[in-house]
Amino acid sequence: MAEPWWEGPGGMELWFPKWAQNGRVRAACFGRSGGVSEKPWDSLNTGFHVEDDPARVTVNRMRCTRVLGGNLEDWVMAQQVHGQQVVRVTAKDRGRGAFTAADSVPGADGLVTNIPGLTLGILAADCVPVLFYDSHRAAVGVAHSGWKGTVGHVVREVVSVMKQSFDTRPSDLNVYLGPSIRQCCYEIGSDVADEVREEFGSSVLIPSGRIVGTPEHFLLSLQACIRSDLMDCGVPEEQIEDVGQCTACHPNHFFSYRRSSGRTGRLVSVIRLVRED
């Protein structure tokens, strides 16, 4: 079973990194329980773009703020186009994507900031949500890493933008890989496998014989690819924490785009620096 690290009010389930307990940063990956959305988005759907009632999505997001702290007006969300663009967020971006998908940060699959009180958010339902924390420079980041973003090295770009923006040293970064589809369930065709192999080699792929009479298929570990990229950037292996939970394996805990053939909700992963009053 995918046991949550903490169970909140109303049955909400959260998974969060060890370093999010130090009082200077709050971070969490929310499961699907504890919201007000109805099937097939039941119940803590936080995505406005999936045909759910927007009023219910807003209530769900507000429930997340009660656990994480801050206000929904402080949220900043990326548009998420399965690319590798990373945007530095400033105070003027406060509220972008919080109450509608239309004004999310355009073209971005990664966000970084050093502004206390801003909450950076990423939506996923199989793709890997990646959270970044530089305790020395007091900066945070998020990335949405599906197979296209992974092959495009979006996590490398987050590290690069944090270095440029905040003088972050990769050796100071703590990184968390949230709930996502894992190699046990993530089957891909030879065309995607070729792109993955070109960037990461063959060790992240396992031949799959599940589909008889089709071209060669493989099982892909996105997490292994991301870990490889982070370590190549200089992030110490022991500072990369992987929650180890597969979204496709645990329908009672997580939304899964692949398991539901696309008609499902979205899980939110968020991080924010705590204001020093």
Please characterize this protein's 3D structure.
This protein has helices spanning 54-68, 147-151, 154-166, 190-200, 222-233, and strands spanning 6-7, 13-15, 25-30, 75-77, 86-88, 110-113, 119-124, 128-134, 139-145, 173-177, 187-189, 205-208, 217-220, 240-242, 267-273. It is an alpha+beta fold. A 6-stranded mixed β-sheet has the order 1-2-3-15-7-4, with no helix packed on it.
Helix content: 10-25%
What is the CATH first-level class name? Alpha Beta
What is the radius of gyration? 18 Å
List the secondary-structure elements in sequence, H or E: EEEHEEEEEEHHEEHEEHEE
Identify the CATH architecture.
4-Layer Sandwich
Structural category: alpha+beta
Strand coverage percent: 15-25%
**How many discrete domains?**
1
Which spans have pLDDT < 50 for at least 5 consecutive residues?
Answer: none
Number of strands: 15
Shape: globular
Tell me the name of the CATH homologous superfamily.
CNF1/YfiH-like putative cysteine hydrolases
Write the layout of secondary structure elements.
Elements: E1 6-7, E2 13-15, E3 25-30, H1 54-68, E4 75-77, E5 86-88, E6 110-113, E7 119-124, E8 128-134, E9 139-145, H2 147-151, H3 154-166, E10 173-177, E11 187-189, H4 190-200, E12 205-208, E13 217-220, H5 222-233, E14 240-242, E15 267-273
Parallel strand pairs: 4-7, 5-6, 10-14
Antiparallel strand pairs: 1-2, 2-3, 3-15, 6-9, 7-15, 8-9, 8-10, 11-13, 12-13
